[in-house]
Specification:
Layout (H helix, E strand, L loop, with lengths): L2 H12 L7 E4 L2 E5 L4 E4 L2 E8 L5 E5 L2 H15 L1
Antiparallel strand pairs: 1-2, 2-4, 3-4, 4-5
Helix pairs in contact: 1-2
């Protein structure tokens, strides 16, 4: 993992996308069971369990959240 990806994951964890956190995405409530995983610059996934069904899945972190986290992490590196 590159230094940029490490900073991005750290920022996402600070924003609440960390293990044992709860979040609402795409109209569903999820309990996050893993930390963010960078697939590409525009795709970051996190392992989760949907609270309603109990099904495990990988949830894509929305692009607007990634943009916000990327902007913050690049400002932090400067």
């Amino acid at each position: 993992m590159t230094a940029t990806e490490v900073r991005l994951c750290e920022r996402l964890r600070q924003l609440g996308f960390s293990r044992l956190s709860q979040t609402r995405l795409d109209g569903s409530q999820f309990e996050l069971v893993g930390d963010p995983v960078v697939i590409s610059e525009l795709v970051v996934l996190v392992d989760a369990v949907e609270r309603k069904t109990g099904e495990s899945c990988r949830v894509r972190i929305p692009l607007n959240i990634l943009e916000m986290a990327t902007e913050h992490s690049s400002n932090y590196a400067a």
